[in-house]
Amino acid sequence: NDSMDEIESLENRRRQFMADVSHELRTPLTTIRGIIEGMSNDMISEEEKEKGLGLASNEARRLIRLVNENLDYEKIRSNQIELLKQEIQLVELFEIIKDQLEDTAAERNNQILITAGPDVTLHADYDRLTQILINITKNSIQFTENGQISLRGFTIGEKVIIEIEDTGIGIDPAEIEQIWSRFYKAIVSRTTNPYGEFGLGLSIVKQLVTLHDGIIDVTSKKGHGTKFTITLPK
C-alpha cells in the first residue's frame, strides 16, 4: 500500500513538474516569438529594436538555464557527475558570489555580508561549490527583504563549515523536511511572492553536497530567518 501511495505521489509530482516546466518554458518562448514577429512585420520601431533584441537574448538565456537545470538534475541523480576537485579559498569564492548577486539583493534592499579568514580553504569542485552557494544565497535573497544574508566560513578540525544565514521570513517547521524534495514549492504562493518557488534548486544542492561527502542542514524560525549549514571535508 505504501508503494502505491509512493507511486501516486511521484506521478502527481511528475505531472506538477511537467506543468511547471511547460509554464516556465512557454513564457520566454512567447516573448521571443512576439519580438521576432514584431521585427519581421516592421511593427517595432528602430529605437525599440535594440531593447527587443536585448529582451529576446535574456529570455533565450533563461530558457537555456531552465533546460540545463533539468538535464543537470538527471545527471546528478544518476551519479554521472565527475567532480574536478581543486584547492579553493573560501573567502575568494564568497566575494565572487557577492559580486554576482549584489544587484539582486539590492532590489530587495538586502545586504550580503562575508565572514571567512584567508586561511579557510578546502578541496572541492569549484563549479559545483559555486552552484551550491549561489542556489542557497539566491534562495535567501528571495525570502528576505530589508535584511541581511551572511556568508560565513570556518574550519573545525578536518572539516570546513559554511553557513548561509538570512533574516527573512523563515520556513514553517512543518515544511522544513520538504524543501529538499525535487518539486517543492514554497507555500508562499506565486500570488503573494513572485519568488515563491524553490524549483529544482535545493534538491540539486543536496545531491551536490552529498557528492562532496558533505552534509547540509537547515534551521529556521518563522519570521526570523533561515540558516543553512554545510559541513564539508577539508
In summary, what is this structure?
The chain is an alpha+beta fold and 234 residues long.
Report the total helices.
5
Task: Tell me which oligomeric state these chains represent.
Answer: single chain
Sheet with the most strands, sense and barrel status: 5 strands, mixed
Overall pLDDT level: 84
What amount of the residues lies in strands?
15-25%
Q: What string, H for helix and E for strand, traces the elements in order?
A: HHEHEEHEEHEE
Question: How many runs of DSSP E, i.e. beta strands?
Answer: 7
Rg over C-alpha atoms, rounded to the nearest angstrom: 20 Å
Query: Helix proportion of residues, in percent?
Result: 40-55%
Low-confidence stretches: 187-198
The coarse overall form would be: globular
Coarse structural class = alpha+beta
Q: State the separation between the terminal residues, measured CA to CA.
A: 44 Å
Spatial order of strands in the largest sheet:
2-4-5-7-6
Structure explained in plain terms:
The strands form two sheets. Strands 2-4-5-7-6 form a five-stranded mixed β-sheet, with helices on one face. With 234 residues, it is an alpha+beta fold. 50% of the residues lie in helices and 21% in strands. It contains five helices and seven strands, in the order ααβαββαββαββ. It is globular and about 65 Å long. Helix 1 packs antiparallel against helix 2 and helix 3 packs parallel to helix 4 (126-142).
